[in-house]
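During the reporting period the student researcher (J.K.) took over the structure-prediction task from the postdoctoral fellow and processed the backlog of single-chain submissions. One of the processed entries is reproduced below for the supervisory committee.
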Amino acid sequence: MAFQDGASAASQGVHPGTAGDACMTVLYDGACPLCRREIGLYRDLPASARLHFEDVSASGAVVPDGVTRAELLARFHVRQADGRLLSGAQAFLAMWALLPGWRWLARAGRIPGVAWLMERAYRGFLRLRPVLQRGARRWERARTAGRARP
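J.K. obtained the following structure tokens:
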């Protein structure tokens, strides 16, 4: 089941996260070098303790009811404490609202039409993501190979 424009999936049986005191679970593609780097930025923030990060590309990752692993890997998702599953721009806006330094983007997303524009921009990014991932992987390999040389 696909969730369009960050629609809620609470009525579809998506359950709240159980990761300690986290108020939101960030479901991300850890196999994507772009995603890993971005999540790394968020994890380093002091307020990230309110977030639980779940790499849905990992073989042991628990996939919420009502959504497939492929759907989670195709778009950014967050699961709120009440079990609602958000995707795309709505997911980013919900996460940014919890993070210092990023809250201004969440506030900007409340301006009429801005969340819609953010969603359209995100969809455009998703079309470019495979090409960007290949470039990021090449860069990572070159960087790693450079460190391995004596």
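The committee noted the following: The two ends are 51 Å apart (CA to CA).
J.K. will present the remaining backlog at the next meeting.
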